[in-house]
UniProtKB/TrEMBL annotation:
GO terms for molecular function: heme binding; metal ion binding; oxygen binding; oxygen carrier activity. Keywords: Heme, Iron, Metal-binding, Oxygen transport, Transport. Pfam families: Globin. This is Neuroglobin-like isoform X2. Residues 1-35 are annotated as: Disordered.
Amino acid sequence: MGCELSKLAGTKSRNQAGNDGSSPPPPPPAATDPRLPLTARQKFTVIASWKAVSRALEPTGIYMFIRLFEENAELLNMFTKFRELKTKEQQSTSMELAEHAKTVMSTLDEGIKSLDDMDAFLTYLHEVGASHTKIPGFNRQYFWKIEKPFLDAVERTLEDRYSENVENIYKLTIKFIIETLIDGFDKAQSEKAKS
């Protein structure tokens, strides 16, 4: 049986080959920017699967913030507009929280959609990171607090499309986004210190 299959495979590829019997080499995958810690295939996977999240930015974002505050209640105090929302119910129906969730998700959306253009990606996320230096009491380590809530929220939105492979790619992606935000934050801090 194995022999038959290999014969079939052999005839098939010969038929598709050029007239001289040699098949053209497959095109190499487009090289990814060396600054991006993802392969071309991983980048394609995250951008493609993100489309579903992109269509549900607000609910995904609200869920992400509810998870964030469940795990880090102290961070609620950073948010003057909704620090009094102590329960999940209050948080899930708050217009202010929904607005902020949408803003943060739009940042992530913009970031993921610009993975094809590292210059745009880095410039944009450095600016967002830098803007957090204006928040009184904001600590650069707070950026890491969103990692797990983000992954939980993406998993909830993607449901069965959130395979182990997709999860691993999102882990790499959010880590890279957070590191880039922190770079922007640090640069702005040191600029401030100089002036």
